[in-house]
Amino acid sequence: MPELPEVETIRRGLSKRIVGKKIVGTDIRVPKNFIGDKNLVIGHEVKEIVRRAKVVAIKLDNSLNLLFHLKMTGQLIYRQESSNIDNQLSGKSKIKSDSFAGGHPDHNWHAELPNSTTAIIFTFNDGTKLYFNDLRKFGWCKVLNDQELQKIFDEEYGLEPFDDKFNAEYLMLRASKIPNRNIKQFLTDQTIVAGIGNIYVDESLFDAKIVPTRRVKDIQKSEWIKIIESVKKILELGIQFGGTTDSDYVNADGEKGGMQNHLKVYRKAGLPCPDECGGKIERISIGGRGTHFCRNCQK
DNA sequence: CTATCTGTTCTGAC
DNA sequence: TGTCAGAACAGATA
């Protein structure tokens, strides 16, 4: 589930909390979710958290990195206290212990940890813990050195949406090589633009008033410019709201995450067009993915 | 109960 | 090379 805004939210949340801390323990509960030697990271300090596309990396002081991909159902949850659900739920105004959760939204954010989906637990020198949960076990955490990390960042992903080089000329060049591809699959191709997934692509195309089925060869330059504007606008909105999360989600500052309250078309099939064009939100399948749009005002 | 759906990405068949 | 179904897995939903 996590797309760029969710992963960026995780990056920011973790940056505030674990930079400068030393990893003193790694508990691998689901081996298939962890690739590498867990002992190599023990005793090392977190220097920085970086994001690229939908992956986030914890950089350590020994030139090693923990790279995470949350896929559909991964979560990263930081807890200052081992597990004390009463403490978290009792305080009406303020949550005493610091905690932070990001990723797949379900109702486990402030439940007791570890739980049945917990794959990996990192323990820091101050006793705080970072839990990697993953219900469907598609996600992974890899131990990589700086060169390996850079190689992945360079070779597996296209431009970041907020890169200045992400412009109409770039997209038209890439589109010219696959002219018959529809715009939805084009924008969710991670080797073209990094970080856009099924939710944000539907929302961005609605904002740009382009039908998801449009072939990229039929898109005019002015429309590419509009698409870029919309993608950036929608992603920024997502980051601003802390990603699309469960309504129960409360971060350490007591704020509710909530991009889901601002979605206009995603999972809104049958409802009237939010732009009041008189049309109705339709749901079709593109590349096996649920696709939501208004046939009346998206052209 | 069964059948179908799900926010990601990779692989193999044609 | 492009396209598509199916795979990995564990639910929720109808």
The strand count comes to 12
- Reading side by side through the largest sheet, how are the strands ordered? 1-8-9-6-7
Mean pLDDT score: 88
Percent in helix: 25-40%
Radius of gyration: 20 Å
Structural class category: alpha+beta
Number of helices: 7
The coarse silhouette is globular
* Content of β-strand: 15-25%
What is the terminal-to-terminal distance? Answer: 27 Å
Largest sheet, in brief, is: 5 strands, antiparallel
What does this protein structure show overall?
- There is one protein chain.
- The protein has 299 residues and is an alpha+beta fold.
- It is 26% helix and 23% strand.
- The chain is built from seven helices and twelve strands.
- The strands form three sheets. Strands 1-8-9-6-7 form a five-stranded antiparallel sheet, covered by helices on one side.
- A hairpin with a 3-residue loop joins strand 4 and strand 5.
- Helix 1 runs parallel beside helix 7, helix 4 crosses helix 7 and helix 6 packs across helix 7.
- The longest helix is centred in the last third of the chain and has 20 residues.
- It is globular, with a radius of gyration of 20 Å.
- It starts with a helix and ends in a 5-residue tail after the last strand.
- The structure holds a DNA duplex (14 and 14 nucleotides).
